[in-house]
Design goal:
Layout: H1 2-15, E1 18-19, E2 26-27, H2 30-94, H3 98-177
Antiparallel strand pairs: 1-2
Organism: Candidatus Avacidaminococcus intestinavium
Protein name: ATPase
Coiled coil: 59-121
């Protein structure tokens, strides 16, 4: 990730900075730190955009899964209706005895029941898949934002820790000038 590189550069800049004698304070070139901060400002929106794009992609997958499930259900219903119609036509053609008619009606009902069960199973599977993908997308986005937030906090703490000694040094110089 670009943020990791930038944070590594910032850490390197801090570790390689000159130390003030007899103190733990360091001197960092303002220009170097400004360049890194500018790159950090540019990289954060890119990382957020990547997370947003991933969420969009997951939502498209969910949408496509549901559309595919609906298409399969419609296809199964059409096939069931076709089979039922064929069964009815066959039953009417062969209507010679009560038993043949009864068997045809039972077969048609079984096909209709199987189709309804298939419809329910496909919808349940599609909804479960869509919910799983949605949960995973939300979890990933949350992890990315948590990671970004923690890295930004750490960076801000380092910058503030290094600014305080510099400000204290300016105050001492100003008092000596007076």
């Amino acid at each position: 990730m670009e943020l990791d590189k930038i944070l590594d550069e910032m850490e390197s800049l801090i570790l390689e900075a000159s130390h003030l004698p007899f103190s733990e304070k360091i001197i960092i070139e303002e220009g170097d730190l400004s360049l890194i901060m500018d790159r950090l400002r540019e990289a954060v929106p890119l990382e957020v955009k990547k997370a947003h794009d991933l969420l969009d992609e997951q939502m498209n997958i969910i949408k496509n899964s549901r559309a595919e499930a609906d298409r399969i259900v419609e296809q199964a219903k059409a096939e069931a209706e076709r089979i039922v119609e064929l069964a009815k036509a066959e039953a009417e053609r062969i209507v010679r005895s009560e038993e043949i008619v009864k068997m045809a009606e039972e077969k048609a009902q079984n096909i209709l029941n199987d189709t309804k069960q298939y419809d329910n199973d496909m919808r349940a599977a599609a909804d479960a898949y869509a919910e799983k993908m949605h949960r995973e997308s939300i979890n990933y986005a949350t992890d990315v934002f948590d990671y970004l937030e923690q890295n930004l906090k750490n960076t801000l703490e380092i910058v503030q820790a290094n600014r305080a000694p510099l400000n204290a040094g300016q105050t001492e110089v100003s008092e000596e000038d007076e």
